[in-house]
Amino acid sequence: MADQSIAREAFYSGRVQGVGFRYTAKRIAQGFAVQGFVRNLVDGRVQLLAIGLAGEVDRYLAALGEAMQENIQEAAISDVAVPPGYTSFEVRA
Fold it and tell me: Which tens digits make up the pLDDT trace of 68-87?
């Protein structure tokens, strides 16, 4: 069970659009064994899905939170079902 992938979905609010958030998320993801996506939402938030081993996902989200702490006002992170088909981490429009 320890090697089971998990998925965490995060919604970030604050000054998170137009500041390179998505590309920072992708760059940081390259240093971790995570898959998923990041995208801007029409309401001004950023949605992120991170899939991987729990420790990797947690370390990734912590690293992203630290890198973008000046911009993040709120981060709502929850566990979600692991969706199939992800092999990389991508920026979506």
Answer: 999 999 999 999 999 999 99
pTM of the prediction? Answer: 0.94
CATH number at residue 28: 3.30.70.100
For the chain, what is the domain count?
A: 1
Active-site residue, 40 included: yes
Catalytic residue (choose from 40, 45, 59, 71): 40
Which one from 22, 39, 45, 59 is the annotated catalytic residue?
22
d(CA 39, CA 27): 14
Q: Looking only at Cα atoms, what is the longest distance across the chain?
A: 40
Residues contacting 58, CB < 8 A, separation 6+:
none
- Domain range holding 34? 5-85
